[in-house]
Amino acid sequence: MMERRQLGRTDLQLSEIGLGCWIMGKSQWINVRDEESIATIHSAIEQGINWLDTAEGYGRGHSEEVIGEALQAHNREEIIIATKVSPEHLGREKLPEALAGSLRRLRTDYIDLYQIHWPNPYYEYDKDHPEIPLEETMEALLTEQEKGNIRYIGVSNFNVRQMAQALAIGRFDSLQPPYSLFFRHIEKSIVPFCLENDIGIIAYSPLAQGLLTGKFSPENRPEPEDIRSRNKLFQSPTFEAAIEAVATVREVGERYGKTPAQTAIRWVIQQPGITSAIVGGRNPHQVQENVGATGWKLDDEDIKLLSSVGDQVMSTLPDEDMRMWVD
After folding, report:
1. Is 51:80 a contact under the CB 8 Å cutoff?
2. Is the pTM of this model over 0.85?
3. Which of 39, 67, 128, 227 has the maximal Cβ count within 10 Å?
């Protein structure tokens, strides 16, 4: 049985890995089929994953639609749904409309964890839109929570200042940041803040968008139309350092009979403050491999070794927050 962990102060008990459903939106990804995505969701649930992470922005809601269809074959009460509202919908009028759209596509009457996808304003994302005060967004979220449309509120890609500002307005219970062996900016101040305030951390991209699977090489990079080609981790000199580091990840994993991906995920879910890791899956085979990251532990010496090779990759990156995840 996969371990389950309490998310912050909530009564949500999350499996230590969740299924990331970004790819199921199809937009910015290639060779994705709905039938395979639905089979992937079924496989995840059958293997003990009890929560799914999506967003209205994933394929303009298509990921939510796929989940809504897949969950018709399962008991809704046993599945935790986490979705996100986009930056342009954070106003008091648009947020309820965005939430209603997510509820409709997901074919449910409540969302377990409703998250602010990106703070507004964010890195020119909203350069053509007026700034929406965080106070307005939090008040709208708290209203929807009081109505029972959402159970808990979460944020994603927030820094400490933004989280402190949100907490001064109302309670939220989770942070979703990028976190992996190769991307560890949250360790300095964000993790301590979350621990101090009982905020659960659900890490996305624990495999560094596939870089830690070991399938990439200097001759094999993402295609230009693949969104990962914009990721700083896939650009020089970081990419070359990461490829070298994966060799050590592979060696460590072999001592446990595990793949590089399983080893990298295991490292994440053994880190302080991490409630669960969101791992994407294109097909049931990938889910089966990802589940192999659970039910065992890395020893302390291997945790230190993996952290040291991760440090080498981190040394090639600027000391910035989540805004550098993609350019």
Report:
1. yes
2. yes
3. 67
Among 196, 200, 198, residue whose Cα is nearest residue 176: 200
Of the candidates 228, 230, 249, the one whose C-alpha atom is nearest the C-alpha of residue 298 is: 249
Domains, the chain, with CATH or none: 4-210+268-297 (3.20.20.100)
Query: Token pair for residue 38?
Result: 């639905």
Q: 217: exposed, middle or buried (C-beta count within 10 Å: 0-12, 13-18, 19+)? A: exposed
Catalytic one of 58, 114, 152, 179: 58
Is residue 231 classed as helix, strand or coil in its secondary structure?
A: strand
Distance CA 77, CA 201 (A): 23
Instruction: For residue 165, give the nearest of 201, 127, 100, 119 by alpha carbon.
Output: 119
User: What digits encode the pLDDT tens for the residues 159-205?
Assistant: 999 999 999 999 999 999 999 999 999 999 999 999 999 999 999 99
